[in-house]
Specification:
two-stranded antiparallel sheet, Quinone Oxidoreductase, Chain A, domain 1, 317 residues, 5-stranded antiparallel β-sheet, Helicase, Ruva Protein, domain 3
Length: 317
Amino acid sequence: MTLSLMPAMTGGRLQKRKNAMKAVALGGNGALDRLRIVDVPEPQPGPTDVLVELEYSGVNSSDLKPRTRGRSPAGRGSPDIPGCEGAGTIAAVGREVDLSYVGQRAAFLTRRGAYATRACVPATQVVFGIPDEIRPSVAGGMSPSHRRAQLWTDIKKTLVHMRDEHHTVPIVVMDEAQHLSDRFLVDLSGFLNVAFDSRDVLTLWLVGLPTLRRHLEMQQHAPLAMRVTTQVHLEPFTDRAAFAAFVTQALAAVGATDKIVADPAMELLLRASRGLPRVASRLLRAALILAHEQDQSFVDEHVLEAVLDDALVTVHP
């Protein structure tokens, strides 16, 4: 949200006030010289709309056709502002839209109006909560889907767009994949077979408990299992040195520069977790929080024992 919008807003909802904004308008048919930068009134979101402060607007064939073929969706007397995809930050919402969306990064796909400082879009055409790691140029053009078949189609289009237009091959990680339904796994197999047999457009990791592997061994999931190129199965640690190295590396990956788990605590952690990485992670996370609350910069056996005594902590994987 920008400061320039604040005077016109009340609690994230725009007042009926016409502020000016910059936009790229189409001045007629022809080459790029027919595009011009103009001052236009800022759009006002309706009850179910959102106002997006744009960081990115994409250029698509649907934007070029009106300019080269003489078709314009704009009404008579109104400026023709092209642009059907964009990404940015929600600056304001209509009265029927959840206020918590204000300030979230978002992307959308619409008919026109994205070649501007701000764009007004129906909330149903917006994907909210875009992670910071996704660049606006990659997020632009995302739109929500409400039917299963359409969702798979939209996912395929988005992945192909990322590959062809942005030269990006995403890595998709589905955690807790042991909970995926049979119906979803069958759909996923068909999606991968039809969409990407001859193209490398994504890397998919299914991450879950050992029950996931047994689930994929079922006959109905044989087509999906045949597409698996790599299987990684983490056995419980039994070697103390290997377990300590695993914990130390995990802590270093999140910024630890000094030894913060005492040797007796490491031994206790191995026994309590039975060498299972998932259980060890859960116990260690609780121990780090408790150590911080006690103003300790390290985890000793007393802290870990307190965690193990806490009835709220489960040691089941």
